[in-house]
């Protein structure tokens, strides 16, 4: 998912929109909507950390993301061409759903292998393995998306990506990722004490996530000028919030890379 699906979604957008006959503005707007889940990692992380489902902080969130991703890819695969042309926001919504799977599973797996690195002391091996497999997936997707789009059409890319996205449900449901279960009766309750103790972190994560989601909504409903005004305004607000909610080093680093 982190390699093949990520790269397919990254590279298929342009040939798909050319196939639909849509202009660059619509492509760029939908590209922004599609990648919004990556900017929402703050709110995803806050939610998964503070509110377990069925006793697990990761398992069921990963499965929900899996369902959304498969639904998004299936929607893109079966969406009629004319419907996609006339209701382009649907295309953005399906891409958004597909990216939710990649972003959420990437976030939670990164957190888990970082934890395992600290426990085992074998950080180099784990990071090397993860990024080797991710790079192999990226190369496979990059090498095939062009020929497939040119010879058959970009729609086939979504059909190819579909079973790859679907297969992650099996290891998730089987519990292959080690995770300690939260004992009842707190297995599905909001962990209020954790939120109170780390409220600044949760507030910052939720703020950035909501701001990103707002950009996706504005992008789908309003003109590029309104999108620009919203982006600049929210950037200023989030930057100011970071100065109050984050440590000085974190805030200044974030502003530098903004």
TrEMBL record:
<dbReference type="InterPro" id="IPR036259">
    <property type="entry name" value="MFS_trans_sf"/>
</dbReference>
<feature type="transmembrane region" description="Helical">
    <location>
        <begin position="86"/>
        <end position="105"/>
    </location>
</feature>
<protein>
    <recommendedName>
        <fullName>MFS transporter</fullName>
    </recommendedName>
</protein>
<feature type="transmembrane region" description="Helical">
    <location>
        <begin position="156"/>
        <end position="173"/>
    </location>
</feature>
<keyword id="KW-0812">Transmembrane</keyword>
<keyword id="KW-1133">Transmembrane helix</keyword>
<feature type="transmembrane region" description="Helical">
    <location>
        <begin position="60"/>
        <end position="80"/>
    </location>
</feature>
<feature type="transmembrane region" description="Helical">
    <location>
        <begin position="202"/>
        <end position="222"/>
    </location>
</feature>
<dbReference type="GO" id="GO:0016020">
    <property type="term" value="C:membrane"/>
</dbReference>
<keyword id="KW-0813">Transport</keyword>
<comment type="similarity">
    <text>Belongs to the major facilitator superfamily. Folate-biopterin transporter (TC 2.A.71) family.</text>
</comment>
<dbReference type="Pfam" id="PF03092">
    <property type="entry name" value="BT1"/>
</dbReference>
<feature type="transmembrane region" description="Helical">
    <location>
        <begin position="228"/>
        <end position="246"/>
    </location>
</feature>
<dbReference type="InterPro" id="IPR039309">
    <property type="entry name" value="BT1"/>
</dbReference>
<keyword id="KW-0472">Membrane</keyword>
């Amino acid at each position: 998912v982190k390699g093949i699906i990520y790269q397919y979604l990254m590279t298929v957008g342009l040939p798909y929109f050319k196939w639909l006959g849509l202009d660059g503005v619509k492509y760029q707007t939908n590209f922004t909507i599609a990648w919004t889940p990556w900017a929402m990692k703050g709110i995803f992380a806050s939610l998964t950390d503070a509110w377990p489902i069925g006793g697990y902080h990761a398992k069921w969130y990963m499965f929900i993301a899996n369902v959304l991703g498969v639904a998004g890819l299936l929607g893109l695969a079966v969406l009629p061409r004319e419907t996609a042309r006339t209701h382009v926001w649907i295309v953005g919504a399906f891409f958004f759903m597909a990216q939710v799977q990649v972003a959420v599973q990437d976030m939670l797996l990164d957190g888990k292998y970082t934890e395992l690195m600290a426990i085992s002391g074998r950080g180099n091996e784990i990071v090397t393995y993860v990024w080797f497999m991710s790079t192999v997936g990226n190369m496979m997707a990059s090498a095939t998306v062009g020929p497939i789009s040119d010879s058959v059409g970009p729609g086939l890319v979504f059909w190819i990506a579909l079973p790859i996205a679907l297969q992650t449900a099996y290891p998730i449901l089987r519990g292959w990722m080690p995770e300690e279960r939260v004992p009842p009766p707190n297995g599905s309750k909001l962990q209020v004490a954790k939120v109170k103790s780390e409220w600044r972190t949760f507030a910052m994560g939720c703020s950035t996530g909501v701001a990103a989601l707002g950009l996706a909504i504005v992008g789908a409903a309003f003109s590029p000028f309104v999108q620009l005004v919203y982006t600049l305004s929210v950037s200023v607000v989030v930057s100011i919030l970071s100065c109050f909610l984050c440590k000085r080093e974190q805030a200044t680093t974030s502003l530098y890379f903004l």
